[in-house]
């Protein structure tokens, strides 16, 4: 076990070093100015990156010893050809190393939440940098697949209805409006509404422009609690979508009751969420080491923000299929299809009809 703990500590150090290098564009700089035939000294990397040589040298030394970078006896560095894509392109593992530091920022307060007399949970504001990083992460993972993969997966003629226009779509927990904007631009004849409880997120969302720089005419954003949506919305949306935002609710049941109220009779509800079984043994056997990442992410962020009041259900992102379906059933959704979404790593689609 001591060796295992040592390996974990080393991995933690390397993960943070990767985060630093990614944020300062060191990997792209190294790839641009060096290779196995022409390695470079840290001073060249520092000069190109606009950073201090001494810090860059220690960073290079750390990642070379961790066998992320290559090094020779002259203490010159480069990236092996087989590692170039992983270290220089936006991808899931690289982004997750960068996201990790944002959820660790409030760790001292999170520790207090574990104690019986401590706070119930943490407010979203405790994760000041997480929202921005989450938007980048979502864009990388989702942008290529929302239109060609997710929309057809919803089925029920929704693609054709979106194209023909005349339908209303609600994005619950829209954050900065990435999904809403993507859908609104691709389906200009339909109307889209994004809802989020965070004023900062909605303020940013309202600044969104189409890819050609023009204003949206079919997209609006509203600041509201997902458990208390405007009373005028009853039976008014043809499609309600929650992109990974259900498990973060302190009362996802109240949110889903509101979703049931605002969606039209025979309307559709699509919920993408982290996939799990609601049993940790089954999840460990199914996902292997990725299960630790799923539960760890929940422990560090999703559970605290979803537990921050006395009546919270405290679901966490690994609430799993069994518990999710039980709550959805109690909120009036009797027939629930669970559809794999392999194009979104570790995610599943719950599809419901009112």
From TrEMBL:
PANTHER family: METHYLTRANSFERASE DOMAIN-CONTAINING PROTEIN, PROTEIN CBG10435. Keywords: Methyltransferase, Transferase. Residues 17-88 form the S-adenosylmethionine-dependent methyltransferase Rv2258c-like winged HTH domain. GO terms for molecular function: methyltransferase activity. Residues 166-279 form the Methyltransferase domain. It comes from the Eukaryota. One of its GO terms (biological process) is methylation. InterPro entries: Methyltranfer_dom, SAM-dependent_MTases_sf, WHD_Rv2258c. This is Methyltransferase domain-containing protein.
């Amino acid at each position: 076990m001591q060796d295992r703990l040592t390996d974990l500590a080393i991995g933690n150090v390397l993960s943070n070093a990767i985060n630093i290098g990614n944020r300062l564009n060191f990997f792209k700089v190294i790839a641009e100015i060096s290779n196995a035939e022409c390695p470079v000294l840290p001073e060249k990397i520092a000069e190109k990156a606009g950073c201090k040589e001494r810090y860059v040298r220690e960073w290079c030394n750390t990642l070379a010893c961790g066998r992320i970078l290559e090094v020779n006896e002259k203490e010159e560095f480069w990236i092996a050809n087989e590692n170039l894509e992983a270290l220089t392109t936006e991808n899931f593992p690289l982004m997750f190393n960068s996201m990790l530091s944002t959820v660790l920022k409030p760790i001292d307060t999170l520790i207090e939440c574990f104690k019986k007399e401590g706070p119930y949970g943490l407010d979203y504001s405790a994760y000041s940098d997480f929202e921005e990083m989450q938007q980048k992460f979502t864009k990388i993972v989702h942008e290529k697949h929302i239109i060609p993969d997710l929309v057809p997966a919803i089925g029920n003629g929704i693609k054709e209805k979106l194209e023909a226009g005349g339908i209303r779509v609600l994005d619950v927990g829209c954050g900065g409006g990435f999904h809403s904007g993507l859908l609104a631009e691709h389906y200009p004849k339909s109307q889209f509404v994004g809802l989020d409880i965070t004023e900062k997120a909605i303020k940013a969302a309202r600044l969104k422009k189409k890819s050609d720089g023009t204003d949206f005419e079919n997209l609006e954003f509203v600041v509201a609690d997902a458990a208390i949506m405007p009373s005028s919305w009853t039976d008014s949306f043809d499609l309600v979508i929650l992109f990974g935002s259900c498990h973060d609710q302190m009362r996802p049941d109240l949110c889903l009751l509101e979703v049931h109220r605002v969606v039209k009779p025979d309307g559709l509800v699509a919920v993408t969420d982290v996939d799990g079984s609601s049993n940790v043994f089954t999840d460990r056997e199914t996902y292997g080491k990725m299960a630790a990442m799923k539960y760890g992410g929940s422990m560090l962020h999703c559970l605290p923000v979803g537990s921050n009041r006395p009546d919270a259900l405290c679901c966490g992102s690994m609430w799993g299929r069994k518990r999710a379906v039980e709550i959805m059933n109690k909120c009036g959704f009797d027939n629930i299809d669970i559809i794999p979404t392999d194009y979104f790593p570790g995610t599943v689609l719950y599809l419901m009809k009112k």
